[in-house]
Amino acid sequence: MSILIVDDDWDFDKTVENDGGRPYYTSALELLGFIYDVWDIAGEQGNQQLQLAGYSAVIWFTGFDG
Questions:
Q1: pLDDT in tens, 6-55
Q2: How far apart (Å, rounded) are the C-alpha atoms in residues 5 and 60?
Q3: H helices present in the chain, as ranges
Q4: Does some domain include residue 66?
Q5: Number of C-alpha atoms within 13 angstroms, CB side, residue 4?
Q6: Please, which of 16, 17, 29, 51 could form a disulfide with 34 given CB 3.0 to 4.6 Å?
Q7: What would you report as the CA-atom Rg of the chain, rounded to the nearest whole angstrom?
Q8: Residue 38 belongs to what domain range?
């Protein structure tokens, strides 16, 4: 199974160490033994459909609802 985590929570504040919600998802997948890729929306651009096409599962998180 190929898994993609899409990090779309805009945690790009360089003044503070901030991984946003990413560790919540990556630690769970690692604990379960899954291999995954991460696509950080803030750092990468491109055709989203092409990015998503090769994965059998996509976890897309957008941060807190605050």
A1: 888 766 555 555 566 788 899 999 999 999 999 887 766 666 777 788 89
A2: 6
A3: 22-31, 48-53
A4: no
A5: 17
A6: 29
A7: 12
A8: 3-61
